[in-house]
Amino acid sequence: MRIVLVGPPGAGKGTQAVLLAKTLSIPHVSTGDLFRANISQGTELGRLAKSIMDAGKLVPDEVTIAMVKDRLAQPDAAKGFLLDGFPRNTAQAVALDEILTESGIALDGVLDLEVPEDEVVKRIAGRRICRNDSSHVFHVAYNAPKTEGVCDICGGELYQRSDDTEETVRTRLEVYHTETEPIIEYYKQQGLVTTISALGPVNEVTERAITALKQS
């Protein structure tokens, strides 16, 4: 299957992308991972992206598109893939269609994870990260530490990331509504969008997603 995963910040795209890709036996293609891989490997695209980011600028669409095109040309993506974080806007969606058309293939579906805005704010603004190990993540409501402000695992200090405040989250949601949400309408016109609720336990959302994809 060739799938695009979309949804607002805090919808659980990263978690669901990993689980869905494993269940469907297709590679999980994350733009964040692509940037990190290209930069760490010192590829031409990676060096270009790093120079742009080091200058405090946003990486232009054409660089991101080129990285995705290169990744989808790899052998493991020949029978399918799950795109997470791409496309982020309509221009990237059009470019993806062109890439796939050149290869004589097409998307099988676009899975839209739906979460109420207030729930997104609650999910993200409630996160607390351990200063000693960023993989130790807690939540004031859903996974509270035994002692407030202290990591259960290593005893490190828990803190709220600067981009996890309610004000910042609402700004990120505005950007999502303005830049990314229009791609849902773009794909709806192609009959590709299936929307599911991303509320509830992780495994239930995954089962919901698998069922929706099989029916699409």
From TrEMBL:
Region (NMP): 30-59
Positions contributing to ATP binding: 10-15, 127, 137-138, 200
Binding site for AMP: 31, 36, 57-59, 85-88, 92, 161, 172
Keywords: ATP-binding, Cytoplasm, Kinase, Nucleotide biosynthesis, Nucleotide-binding, Transferase
Pathway the protein contributes to: Purine metabolism; AMP biosynthesis via salvage pathway; AMP from ADP: step 1/1
Subcellular location: Cytoplasm
Ranges for domain Adenylate kinase active site lid: 127-163
SUPFAM superfamilies recorded: P-loop containing nucleoside triphosphate hydrolases (SSF52540)
A Pfam family hit: ADK
First-tier enzyme category under EC: transferase
Coiled-coil portions: none
EC number(s) stated in the UniProt entry for this protein: 2.7.4.3
Gene3D superfamilies: P-loop containing nucleotide triphosphate hydrolases
Catalytic reactions on record: AMP + ATP = 2 ADP
Subunit and interaction comment: Monomer.
Function, in words: Catalyzes the reversible transfer of the terminal phosphate group between ATP and AMP. Plays an important role in cellular energy homeostasis and in adenine nucleotide metabolism.
Name listed for the protein in its UniProt record: Adenylate kinase
Lineage of producing organism: Bacteria, Bacillati, Actinomycetota, Actinomycetes, Kitasatosporales
Gene encoding the protein: adk
